What does this fold into?
Amino acid sequence: MHRRFIVPGALGAATLMLAIPASAAAHSPGAPGIGDPYYPAYGNGGYDVSHYDLRLKYQPDTDRLEGTATILARTTEDLSRFDLDFLLDVGEVRVNGAKASFTTSGEQELEITPAKPLDKDTPLTVIVRYSGVPSSKQAFGFTSWHRTPDGGIAANEPEAAAWWFPSNDHPLDKATYDVSVQVPDGTQAISNGTLQSTSSRLGWTHWNWRSAQPQATYLATLAIGRFDLTTGTTEGGIPVVNAYSEDLGPNDGAARASVERTGEVADWLSGYFGPYPYDALGGYVPNTDTGFALETQTRPFYSPRQFANGSNVSVVVHELAHQWYGDLVSLRGWKDIWINEGFARYAQWLWSEHEGEGTAQELADYTYASYPADDPFWTVKPGDPGPENQFDTAVYDRGALAVQALRNEIGDDAFFTVLKGWPAKYAHGNASVADFQRYAEEVSGKPLAALFDTWLFQPSKPDAAAARAQSLAKPSGTPAQPRSWRKIAATNDVHDHGH
Ligand SMILES: [Zn+2]
It folds into this structure.
């Protein structure tokens, strides 16, 4: 859906070689993309970020954001220049203390040329001073900044960072964050992690948030508006901060009845996935009319529309499941989205079972039978859906069918060992669908290439024999309809399911 064009990096390098002294000829520009096949311009090459320090000031009336980003990184190549991904207007850039020249190219590339070339494997401190109106910016035909009556929100997938801070915008480069936001007194600023402190002076309140564990750029979030905050602690001892817009109207009760169960749900999920991986937890519900939810790290974003039919704990289960499957272990490339969505949907099925609303197997049988063989649903390959189908229902539902098929193939003991072992094996890193298959084969001792191919990589409905082999279809007759079938139908609606 969000297409990007390829920048001819080799040509750029050749041109630059002529313009620089021979002594620096070994230094060349970092690539304008990190190498994602779906999105060639996402992220950048030549360096690795360890920390973002963001000092921001936001005016809700005008949607004006000013900021200074201090980025701590390390070079991974000899660099004559390098890129950040960013959309707002840049006033000054400093690299290792010295003013650097900069220009913009492509849809969101900020090209930075330091005063001196940078040697490989050396520390890099980049300071970017900037300002702008995020809601006025688009890239690749979309915006990830959602203006609200009392502020704005940065939340989207696969990209949201460029609307509020410069970054190496791809999950392959995770970092820690300190986010400090000045807003007028009486307004709140919500972000990820722990609220270290708030303080007020001269009519402005400073909100200081810290993400002490590595976080992908698209999982960083910012929400400014008038929020009511609730705090608590999970049974496991994790501090919880939730935030609700003061303007949720008739959805307010259902939103709270769902998101206030965050601690309970995280504790329940840890029984399947292992200990909750972060030192902070929560959720927030701004007064936006967007239809999706997002697994922003430690503090998912929920849209009020998800609570229009009453409480919806299932969406909370989905977004919190991503804290392990998506956030702790992130995809290697965006084609690996099944690792995120197949498992987050499957967690919803496990929750249904927990709530007595149909077992995972019943929901799998029902889902399998719901789509006839000629339904376009089966043409989407969850293991490599293409950018245009990255968030198609099939990635979620057929993705979860694949998880149930795996469970039936390797048995519950091996399956639940895999479910819990995977987040630990790749904690704070990245992994691919192929890595998952290898790991499941390792744990179960079974070859699984045929199973993965059938359920994730064929553009057609696995036949009844294949499905029966994995117990996904009743031998004959109509599939059992779990009591929650109406709810399942609803989760297929684009306005009801989360990313
Ligand atoms: Zn999701």
Q: What stands out?
A: The pocket of zinc ion is lined by residues 318, 322, 340-341, 344, 498-499 (CB under 6 Å). Residues 366 and 480 are 7 Å apart (CA to CA). The first strand starts at residue 47 and ends at 59. The two ends are 15 Å apart (CA to CA).
